[in-house]
Design a protein that fits this description.
Radius of gyration of chain A: 26 Å
Shape of chain A: globular
Largest sheet of chain A: 7 strands, mixed
Structural class of chain A: alpha+beta
Largest interface: A-B, 66 and 64 residues
Helix content of chain A: 40-55%
Strand content of chain A: 15-25%
Number of helices of chain A: 9
Number of strands of chain A: 15
Oligomer: homodimer
């Protein structure tokens, strides 16, 4: 890269509102989102509230040719809902789960089950190391009586900690997501002032979109005006943030938001507006072509690392099978408990209608059996939730390991091209390295 | 600092086995540990299994003069058990909670309730930025049938991710803790090969301690030989790891472990042996005196940051009070449920003894009331656990914010010495900056 070389990066961010069977026109909207992403070909696509992995896989298939690299961050009971699609290879990923995220008994708000988090992906943009973050903070259900404020402040605190500590080596930092905070809210100020991140809406040279950059607007079909009170026209809670480094300057040349319904369609993409930022990176110092920190590692060490990683993946897969079996057992036991309860009710039903008549089923046994059934149901339900969370964490680790293995193998292949005789093509136990298929 | 300047750093690590009322001779051992730390004056002390905050506070008081800087990492239901004491100012801290950590119903193993994690502290060692990590991984209860293997592998994976991604800007990395893995175990290899960390036992020029550097030995009073089978003499599962950077070389000149009972005392410090490593840092490039990343921030921005931080701390404290109140309500409701159950049992007791006699208490009401009591007890118990976890997370964030505020204020004071006229001594709302007492 020459001195003061310019690289353009188009970043897209959208909260997809993707609750299957509950969000309105969900599959139709995913179809629209997929088509638009295919056409627009942004460099980096950051999505939130992709709650179903099936929808992620739908988009992944749809975007195979335009965005060959992607990652879905798994966490919590349902998932983190976070996904990234990229034109550029993803070298590494990391997920930080917020320590606080609402209450499990506030099931109608659902945030706790989502396992909110911040996901990081490390890309190589024309020789520059770019740390990309996607996140979604706890929703604000009432501005006046916000019982989740302290949770959101702690999330903003952890978000700034995570970004600050993990981005020291990055040339460029880009953050996209639904922060569920207005620009002047405490959490936003904490995040911006601590990290030095800049707001693309504030910094952009040219803007085309909703008034004041709003991302939750009254003109959106899916928004009821009551939700927005006292902000009649809407609020700005979705952001694309960025910062450069001593090596790289970064500017926002253009920013846009959607404005409710999509031209040519009857529907908007989501209840949130989508953001697009056109960023320009200017690098001062000739950049390196490698991007991750394993670049100085000798080939033998790399091959050893791949082996260790294969072994770790195997072990995690064993854990996965075990957790799946345990979850299945919990579900089966739960179903048996339910069947027993129905059976008991059926037996007891007939004499129950004839009140006063003698009961063939002793009352004490009846109540004890019913209590047992309820205990079984409750226990198996809790276990089912727990094993689902375990599965998500194991799958998440396995995904990250697979991606890391793919990146290492690419590096090894690079070595074998430049140093054809020095690459150990076999691991110590004779297994072919390429047997570890990164996309398996 | 001159070219190739040397700095000696003495690091101490110990799993304290500090379960109040359950671990043998707990308070006596903490007294011994406190006295030894006072005398030895290590630069950095990394402790694990300090399960009670009271014990941390006892050590903190005891070490005020030798180790004025400390941090206790809060997490999970009980806590992470991780603590750090330092001669050098702690500029920043960050905690990563492992996504997997055993099962809540394996209460006798207790790991789940501990909320295992890795804590990071950023220090300035003679002008070098040192990232210090302390961690404790899930225990291995059976070598042959290790049902937690996948959990420990995922923990090792997350540990290496956390260290690798957060230490990019560090001149020196030091990791201490109980990894619960033998040196050749998969998780250990994953950690070492991915991060490039070196093992002080392997690297040390001189060693004095147990055979093979073992840290869980048969000669320890608190260890039953059955636990160690098939490793008769003991195993090595505690480590001090380190690595330098392009700027700094690091060597281990001397390493030692305790050998069971402490000379002059009847007891060992813990069921684990304590590790001490004498590290030598050699810096190539003149180091900067500032250590954290806010060093280039102008004074006004720093003052603004302190204000935002104060506001955030207030908000978190509001959340803390709210969570405390909720936990108190849960506990009170639970006690009322219990009282109701006892009352019911007392009323029902007399006729129950005379079986066959007519009961004044209708059976159906009896069972319904009992079921209600049990439901209340279970719900309030779960809520109590949940609010305790929430409290721990809020307290943890507040602690980290207080520490960060202290560090920022120190920086501001530094500015006010060098630039006496340019420092805003008051925040915008007129509050004295010094009102934010970092040790409050």
């Amino acid at each position: 890269m020459a001195d003061k070389d310019c690289v353009g990066v188009r970043v897209f961010s959208l909260n997809c509102w993707g609750i299957r069977y509950l969000s309105k026109h969900c599959s139709q909207r995913y179809q629209m989102i997929g088509e638009m992403l295919c056409k627009e070909q942004h460099d980096i696509v950051l999505l939130q509230e992709v709650w179903s992995e099936k929808d992620f896989l739908y988009l992944k298939t749809k975007l195979t040719s335009t965005h060959p690299h992607s990652h879905y961050f798994k966490s919590g009971v349902i998932g983190s809902g976070l996904a990234i699609f990229s034109k550029h290879r993803i070298h590494d990923t990391f997920l930080y789960r917020y320590s606080l995220n609402g209450y499990p008994y506030m099931a109608h708000h659902g945030d706790w089950f989502g396992g909110k988090a911040v996901g990081m992906a490390i890309l190589n943009l024309a020789g520059l190391t770019a740390n990309i973050y996607v996140t979604h903070l706890h929703a604000e259900y009432s501005r006046e009586k916000d019982s989740y404020l302290s949770h959101r402040v702690v999330q903003a605190w952890e978000l700034q900690q995570f970004i600050r500590h993990t981005s020291t080596g990055a040339d460029v930092v880009i953050v996209g997501g639904d922060l569920n905070m207005h620009p002047q809210d405490l959490g936003c100020r904490l995040l911006m002032s601590y990290t030095g991140l800049r707001d693309s809406y504030v910094e952009t040279a040219k803007f085309d979109g909703c008034e004041n950059g709003m991302t939750l607007i009254a003109d959106n079909l899916f928004i009821s005006k009551n939700e927005l009170i006292p902000f009649e026209k809407g609020i700005r809670i979705d952001y694309i943030l960025f910062k450069g480094s001593s090596k790289t300057d970064i500017y926002c040349d253009f920013m846009s938001t959607t404005k409710g319904s999509v031209p040519g369609h009857a529907l908007p993409y989501s209840d949130h507006e989508a953001l697009t930022a056109e960023l320009r990176l200017e690098s001062h110092i000739p950049a390196q072509t490698g991007s991750d920190k394993t670049q100085d590692t000798p080939t033998e060490k790399l091959a050893e690392l791949v082996d260790t990683l294969t072994e770790a993946r195997t072990e995690v897969k064993v854990g996965l099978h075990c957790a799946e079996r345990m979850r299945y057992t919990a579900a089966r036991t739960g179903v048996m408990g339910l069947a027993l309860l129905f059976l008991e009710l059926a037996i007891a039903a007939v004499p129950c209608f004839a009140l006063g008549a003698e009961q063939p089923f002793p009352r004490i046994s009846f109540y004890l059996l019913a209590a047992l059934c309820f205990a079984i149901l409750l226990t198996t339900f809790l276990l089912y939730i727990f094993y689902t969370m375990e599965l998500k964490s194991l799958q998440g680790a396995e995904d990250q390991m697979r991606l890391a293995a793919g990146s290492l193998q690419e590096k090894l292949r690079g070595f074998s091209v430049t140093q054809p005789h020095s690459v150990p093509q076999r691991s110590p136990d004779g297994e072919q390295l390429c047997a570890l298929d990164p996309e398996e």
